[in-house]
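Consider the tokenized backbone below.
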């Protein structure tokens, strides 16, 4: 029996699969263990889409305990060539406001102890992460977002913290002082593992709040969890609409370099 196949993968909130057409519920086994949950495969605009809730359907996996390798390898096994990784995030800059969307082009890894590579030997493999997000997908997503009237930033650096704790004010102020725009707990190693598998990866950060280092800035009040949830819920429909426009708009031909990431990456004697 042939395995179910998909062209595009999505990591995100557990409710997304309810918007897919002709959904098939699939259990995937990988060499790295089980992914976060069962894989939902369906259609959007005629494209086959595989969906995995990165935290699990019951949000049972905190960010530092997600089996990122299994999640990415499950997508690879299904034939996925492009992955969209939307996520709720905090803002580190005053001009990046709650309700905005940021199409990240860089990440900074501040995690620790996460298993973050498929290449443990015996052949040393060093994959470049100079431009970790797919340039082709980023451009298309930004154009569609602007057409939909979203407040969208088409570049941005996300600093990825270990979690599950949030940052101290001192840490947050340091991140802001570096000029980084977004703070999140799941973009690393998710984005980088996609690159090791030569899969295109796009991040769309939905900004739910200003991080704690900005709370002393005039006009910015300390955030509450109720406000974060409200902002996320208010903008989740906009994110869904963006994805439903984006997925059918992705061309079959790739103009990026993501699919050749392993060229020249292996050290041989």
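A designed sequence for it:
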């Amino acid at each position: 029996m042939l395995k179910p196949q998909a062209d595009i993968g999505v990591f995100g909130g557990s409710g997304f699969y309810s918007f897919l057409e002709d959904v098939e519920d699939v259990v995937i086994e990988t060499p790295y263990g089980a992914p976060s949950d069962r894989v939902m495969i369906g259609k959007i605009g005629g494209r086959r889409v595989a969906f995995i809730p990165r935290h699990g359907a019951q949000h049972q996996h905190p960010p530092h305990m997600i089996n990122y390798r299994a999640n990415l390898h499950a997508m690879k096994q299904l034939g996925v060539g492009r992955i969209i990784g939307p996520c709720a995030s905090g803002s580190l800059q005053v001009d990046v406001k709650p309700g905005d969307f940021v199409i990240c082009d860089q990440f900074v890894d501040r995690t620790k102890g996460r298993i973050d590579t498929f290449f443990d030997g015996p052949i040393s493999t060093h994959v470049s992460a100079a431009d970790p997000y797919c340039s082709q997908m980023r451009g298309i997503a930004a154009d569609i977002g602007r057409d939909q009237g979203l407040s969208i930033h088409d570049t941005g650096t996300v600093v990825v913290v270990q979690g599950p704790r949030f940052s101290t004010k001192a840490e947050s102020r340091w991140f802001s002082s570096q000029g980084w725009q977004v703070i999140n707990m799941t973009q690393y190693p998710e984005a980088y593992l996609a690159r090791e598998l030569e899969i295109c990866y796009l991040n769309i950060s939905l900004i739910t709040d200003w991080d704690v280092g900005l709370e002393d800035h005039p006009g910015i009040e300390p955030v509450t969890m109720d406000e974060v949830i409200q902002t996320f819920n208010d903008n989740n429909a906009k994110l869904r609409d963006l994805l439903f426009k984006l997925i059918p708009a992705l061309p079959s031909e790739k103009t990026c370099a993501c699919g050749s990431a392993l060229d020249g990456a292996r050290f041989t004697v």
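Helices lie at 68-77, 135-147, 169-177, 187-196, 225-249.
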